[in-house]
Amino acid sequence: MANKTKKTFHTGTVKKTIKIKATRDKVWRKISNIAGLPTWVVDVKKTVYLSSKKKGVGAVRLITFNDGNKIEEHVVAWKDKEYFSYIATEGLPLRAYVATISIKAKSRSIVELTWQSYLNSMKMTEKQFLDFIVFMGSFYEASLENLKTSLEK
Fold it and tell me: In 3D, which of 62, 74, 69, 133 has the Cα closest to residue 99?
């Protein structure tokens, strides 16, 4: 039985997929606007660019959540109309956070979008980490539902 109260570093992944009735171009336009998060990501108050670059590798955004928490993210991989990956450099209880949002056309009007991430925690208990993973999973799910709703209008 693992010690749930000892504080250590933990590693985990979160992956959520959703099907959206929209064209690949339309979905990509929405998600590749990396400062457009308030229109679909849960609890985001505002997103601003910290870089002059707005798309592609090297674009940097600062996300401010409704609770005042701020997260800085840097785009580290980008393939037009397919995927982009980003890392969070501060603002999370993590030592490492890398996420990728990717899309695949299932037909002319259905796109499958996957949001997945790898994370490595600061020192915390196993229970704290598992709670955080569950929180991230429901955060991704709720945000993806918002995205689907906004694109299927």
Answer: 74
